[in-house]
Design goal:
Blueprint lengths: L5 H11 L3 E3 L1 E4 L2 E4 L4 H8 L4 E11 L5 E14 L2 E8 L2 E9 L2
Antiparallel strand pairs: 1-7, 2-3, 4-5, 5-6, 6-7
Length: about 100
């Protein structure tokens, strides 16, 4: 059996990755970046199509104190066939993913 050509492997890898992570999200003419607050995102992007509580996460602050923060996911879209998933931990945007709708 012959090894698969690199282009075939790359194509399979890209196909397998349904969502892509980003550090910014465009809302019309506005742009939000990681670490933005929920109020900043809402001001720039409006009310999300869907918002849900994912759970809670324990974080340690700069003084070594442990805190439990709420983890929420907001979904915007579809915009030009794309859905945008914004994950907030506490009050801060920590992850932005995009995925083409089906």
């Amino acid at each position: 059996m012959f090894p698969a050509p690199p282009l075939v492997l790359l194509s399979l890898l890209l196909f397998a990755c349904g969502a892509q992570a980003s550090s910014t999200h465009r809302c019309g003419s506005a742009l939000v970046s990681l670490e933005a607050s929920t109020s900043e995102v809402r001001d720039k992007c409006g009310v999300p199509t869907s918002a849900s509580l994912v759970g809670y996460k324990e974080v340690v602050d700069e003084y070594g104190f442990r805190h439990e923060v709420r983890v929420r996911e907001w979904i915007y879209g579809p915009t030009n066939g794309m859905y945008h998933f914004l994950r907030f931990e506490g009050n801060r945007l920590r992850r932005i993913d995009s995925q083409r709708g089906r």
